[in-house]
Write a structure and sequence with these properties.
388 residues; Phosphatase 2c, domain 1; 2 domains; 5-stranded parallel sheet; 16 strands; 25% strand; elongated
Length: 388
């Protein structure tokens, strides 16, 4: 059974309570309304403090002890949603205007027409319900925003953030940064030592946005690292990764990914590209070349997809730069993409720079380029410099 609407009637006329109970006896009996009565403003305040379920106040203006206008001015102290209907003598427009200016929702005139009384009461209830619904929606939104904030902190915490990550190593340098378009993102990066002579590193971009993408991103990162630590080749690692995802994930979710293994004692790089943006190798003198082949399908979309292992040789001083499409597809206020061409030109200027300088400069250039536009995608970049 629904909770009855509780209405506080404030009036010093002794017959009014009897008239209201008689008029609304069926609705009271059916649990639609519950009326509470007070004979002056002071008693009304006391009842309002005792019963937080009282949301509607119908009050006379002229009463002993505390009049209706004074009561109106005191209601704001209760710090809760209340709707007040003021009652006054016909023609008493000055007091009625004062009451409306002090926050009354509506008014009735005496002698009370009970049909008008019921119409006004129902209208007030509808308005109050709309306000309560809005407050509930705001509370739910606040809760969601809080949860998203917590999720964002959790997501950022699972990505490596300590740089340099291997302070005892001088044979390579690595740096990465992820800036989500929303509170939480679908991009990820990772790096880890498989053994003392092999560094595994990856960057990925999960389909979709929001919490589903963030959860899928965490699954992908964990699964890839667990697979990579079994000492598989880059291609075999992504094949196993794809087979597991296609069997267990939602068919609408997939991920583009680059996974590489740097042999730190020789500079050999073996890698696998699963539908991801080709990375660039930066050499001294401004030479920048793209690593586009071999390339396979995105992971998690097709069962039994095949993936090849590519190989190249990094020379001491060369760097590899990896990124997600949030870099090249960032838009400016003219509707132009940052583009592969702009990125290539920028990287030419950055050859010979440290891994951190490369990443920070690219991310900053993208930020400047897209200033004034709402980000539509996560921006993630990673650079690995082989020192030999």
């Amino acid at each position: 059974m629904a909770t009855p609407f509780k209405v506080l009637i404030v009036d010093d006329e002794p017959d009014l309570e009897l008239l209201i109970r008689q008029r609304f006896r069926k609705k009271i009996r059916d649990g639609e309304f519950e009326f509470v009565f007070a004979h002056d403003g002071e008693e009304a305040l006391s009842k309002l403090k005792e019963d937080v379920a009282l949301d509607i106040v119908m009050s006379d203006i002229n009463m002993p002890v505390m009049d209706g206008l004074t009561l109106l001015s005191r209601l704001s102290d209760l710090n809760r949603s209340l709707k007040t209907v003021i009652v006054s003598a016909y023609g008493d427009m000055q007091n009625i205007r004062t009451a409306m200016n002090r926050g009354a929702y509506d008014f009735l005139v005496k002698p009370i027409d009970f049909q008008d009384f019921e119409i006004t009461l129902n209208k007030t209830i509808q308005e109050l319900e709309a306000i309560k619904q809005g407050l509930r929606a705001r509370e739910e939104l606040t809760a969601i925003q809080h949860e998203l904030s917590v999720a964002s902190r959790i997501q950022q915490s699972i990505l490596p953030r300590e740089f340099p990550p291997f302070p005892g190593r001088t044979d390579f340098e690595i740096f990465a940064q992820m800036t989500p378009a929303r509170e939480i993102g679908g991009d990820f990066y990772d790096f880890f030592l498989i053994d003392k002579d092999r560094l595994g590193f990856s960057i990925g971009d999960v389909s979709g946005k929001g919490i589903p993408a963030a959860i899928f991103m965490a699954v992908c990162r964990t699964l890839l690292k667990a697979t990579a630590l079994q000492s598989k080749s880059a291609g075999d690692c992504i094949k196993y990764f794809n087979d597991v995802l296609t069997r267990q994930s939602d068919s609408a979710m997939f991920v583009t990914i680059f996974y590489g293994i740097l042999h730190t004692n020789t500079g050999e790089l073996e890698y696998c590209i699963a539908g991801h943006n080709p990375p660039y190798v930066l050499s001294d003198g401004g030479d920048v070349r793209e690593i586009a082949e071999p390339s396979g399908l995105m992971a998690g979309a097709f069962e039994q997809a095949s993936y090849e292992t590519g190989r190249l040789q990094l020379k001491p001083g060369e760097s590899i730069f990896l990124f997600t499409d949030g870099v090249t597809e960032s838009l400016n206020t003219k509707g132009e993409f940052f583009s592969d061409e702009r990125l290539h030109t920028l990287l030419e200027r950055l050859s010979g720079s440290s891994a951190e300088e490369i990443v920070r400069c690219v991310v900053n250039e993208v930020r400047i380029f897209s200033a004034g536009e709402t980000p539509s995608d996560d921006v993630t970049a990673m650079a690995l410099n082989y020192r030999g």
